[in-house]
Amino acid sequence: MPAVAKLMCMKGHNALFPCRFCMIRGIRPPGARAPALYVPLDRSSHPNHDPAIPRYDPANLPRRSHEDMLRQAREVDAASGGEAERLAKEYGIKGIPILAALPSIRLDRSFPVEFMHLVWLNLVPNLVLLYTGQFKGLDAGRGDYEFAAAIWEEIGRVTAASGAHVPSAFGARVPDLAKDKTHMIAETWCIWTMHIAPIVLRGRFREERYYTHFMQLVHLLELCLQLEISRLDVEKIRSGFVDWVERYEQYVNSVRPRQF
Question: What is the pTM assigned to this prediction?
Fold first, then answer.
């Protein structure tokens, strides 16, 4: 994402409007000092949310268009000093990218997401941090999806032991996640998610709905990784991720800073 942001002259993933496909607005967690912004769908309980947009509809996000992005970029280029910075912050774009000179380029469509970093090195590792109570100092809020330490240690042990029975054609051997995740690469996160986690996580959550939610993600990733994807599959992926994200926000709602 940072590389594509530079190529497109976008503000980037920590910007007020970080997405290159839509105009969803980022918000900072209440009381947080870090500059990172987040883009939850439901921000109605946030003390500083925009009253006009208490919640975004994931099936109908405010889409960007090539024409709008070029217009905004021209406005930024035409401004100077503080006004240029203000406009760049408001639009999420810092100027006209050089590739926009090519008639075959559409700023809203020509730069798709990159699956490896988006899923295997971001989404899945962050879910594991969430399940193990290590995600940015947040606790489980009203939910109860965190593994007890002993349970996670057993999951890691069984994961590492499974390597002796998995053919090498499947890929690199997955290490013990509970002991050391630094050796996890995109390939091993993929193998663990698709082939090992459905077994080792079964019956481990305190509530079955969290396992069902995880398996919903696995099914969606299976659809994404098919060698051929039909129009029906595209709609299943689209509606499936809409439902998955909405359930995610419902399940982790009201997470609170961990008390030290």
Answer: 0.88
The Cα 177–Cα 151 span in angstroms is 12
pLDDT class of 164 with cuts at 50, 70, 90: very high
Residue 40: left if φ>0, alpha if ψ -120 to 50, beta else—which one?
A: beta
In whole angstroms, how far apart are CA 162 and each of 13, 191, 203? 37, 11, 18
Neighbours of 111 (CB within 10 A): 19
Helix residue ranges, H only, 46-106: 66-78, 81-91
Both tokens of residue 202? 């079964």
Is 24 within 8 Å of 56 (Cβ atoms)?
A: yes
CA 216 – CA 213 distance, rounded (Å): 5
Q: Report the largest interatomic distance among the alpha carbons of the chain, rounded to a whole angstrom.
A: 63
Quick check: helix, strand or coil at residue 68? helix
The arithmetic mean of pLDDT across residues 227-242, rounded, is 97
Q: Is 202 helix (H, G, I), strand (E, B) or coil?
A: coil
- CA count, 13 A, side-chain hemisphere, 81: 1
Output the pLDDT for position 129: 93
pLDDT for 26-74, tens place per residue?
A: 998 887 777 788 899 999 988 888 889 999 999 999 999 999 999 999 9
Please tell me the distance from the alpha carbon of residue 243 to that of residue 247, in angstroms, as a whole number: 6
